[in-house]
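Batch queue: ligand-bound targets. Current item pairs a single chain with molybdenum atom. No template structures supplied; prediction is de novo from sequence plus SMILES. Inputs echoed for audit trail.
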Amino acid sequence: MKKYKIILVLVLIVALISGCSNSPQNNKENVQIEKNKESQEDKKEVAVINTEKPEEEPINNEKSETENKPEDIIQDMPIEETTRGEESILSEETTNENNQTIIENESESSETEEKEVAIKIEGLADNELTLTLDELKAMVDIIFEEDFYWLNSFGSKGHTHFKGVNLWSLLEQKALISATATKVSIIAQDGYQMDFSIEQVKEQDYIDETNPEKNYPMIIAWEENGEEYDPEEGAPFKLVVGQKEAGDVNKPQWVSNIDRIVIE
Ligand SMILES: Nc1nc2c(c(=O)[nH]1)N[C@H]1C(S)=C(S)[C@@H](COP(=O)(O)O)O[C@H]1N2
Ligand SMILES: [Mo]
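Prediction returned. Tokens below.
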């Protein structure tokens, strides 16, 4: 019996000791370890999501200055945007505004790619206009079509048939040019520009030195020798003018691919 008692006591002691190892303190630690394990697994999941995100949204990745070296950002940005980026260091508000402006500009340029080419008439006019080729063609009351004589700088010459609208009629009747206007600039997409006085644009009697019976106004042509200009090769509008007098080298005064007409 004594043996049994000793064994019982031993069993009790063992039970007590093992009970101590399950003290509330140890329990807390165990729970904490479990929690840590869980949160590490959570982090792993988050990490997986984060590595996927930049692929889905490269725009965010580009804008993160911590991920890109400043030189990389400057190299990737067009000059105009780089300047804006430097300005934006001055305040957070401008950073936001400028970023929005950049995005707006991007969408604007993609819109203009889809848009039809148009000729702009701006400056001293009551009705500034942006005209597509179809809108210009629809101005049937001011269309002028004729063989124009041309003389070039090195003495080459010839006749070319043009169809277009009378420039002065366009400015006077459609754009409602101001009475105070003195100058009209015809500006091409490549920067080529011809400036004319109002009197020169008003003139309806330009000549063909080889044919005294002919008289011409300045015209904005969209068709040459029966063929329309290919819009793929630039804005399909060309300023054509006859000669002021015999010997007038008029061909260089023509302006291909007109972008805008500025009235001053
Ligand atoms: N946009 C644009 N128009 C321009 C030029 C030019 O370089 N760019 N050159 C001018 C010159 S110098 C000449 S001689 C004529 C040539 O006309 P063509 O292109 O019908 O041959 O275009 C004139 N118009
Ligand atoms: Mo020329």
